[in-house]
Every structure is written in structure tokens, then in C-alpha cells.
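Reviewer 2 asked us to include a model.

Predict the structure of this chain.
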Amino acid sequence: MNDCLFCKIVKGEIPSYKIYEDKFTYAFLDISNDANGHILVVPKQHSKNIFDTTEENLSHVMKTIKLISNHLINNCGFDGVNILNANDITAEQSVFHLHFHIIPRKKGDEMKVFPNLPKNKQTMEEICERLTIK
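Predicted model (C-alpha cells):
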């Protein structure tokens, strides 16, 4: 994809702080420089999001996420990670190339990464009936 920001980063047309690269994936520091060690993992093959990527592509991305997450815990002094992903504009996806955020965490860092969601008005039974795959 010619105008995709992450495709340009993968191709080296835009500089990045590369953390890891293999044949299928590329991982780099998030330019926001918000959380210490905030990393983005993208497939090299362009896909908009999880809905149009291949299972193989997603598998490679998840293997890279696991590799990096283990590295952060075992070698970099972090205690845990948040792994975040948004799919499509209604879910607040801002760059339309499949990507996952890895946010390294330390005990007591006081970051609030998960949103404070309002209480759902439907019963659990209603929700389960509507969402169950049959």
C-alpha cells in the first residue's frame, strides 16, 4: 500500500526505532513516547486490521508479540505487559495497517491502560444468547 504509514516504516522509507524484525513482522517503538518501552508490532504484509488479515499473518504477529513480551519480562526488568489492538474506526483504530501495542508494565507504575466502561444494561443471558456462535 503506497500511502500506508506503517508500510513506509517497514520499507525503511520513514525512520523508526526498530526493536525486532523477521521475515514476516516488524516491531518498533511507538513515536508517541508515552509509556516506557511502548512497542508496535506490525505484519510486513499489509492488511487493514484483524478482519482482513490471513490466519498465517496473524500467527506470525502473535509469535512476535510473545517473543518480545518474554524478552521485556526476562531481560529488561518489566513485570508484565498490556497487549492492545483496535480494529476499524469505531474501535478507535487510527492507522489502518494491522498493529498491536505492547506496553511494558512495572509493579506500581500507576498507569491506567484499560478504559473505565459504563455498566451494560442487558442481562448476561441476553448478551450470551446474542453472541453465542452456533
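The radius of gyration is 17 Å. Residues 5-131 form a domain with the HIT family, subunit A fold (CATH 3.30.428.10). We have added this to the supplementary material.
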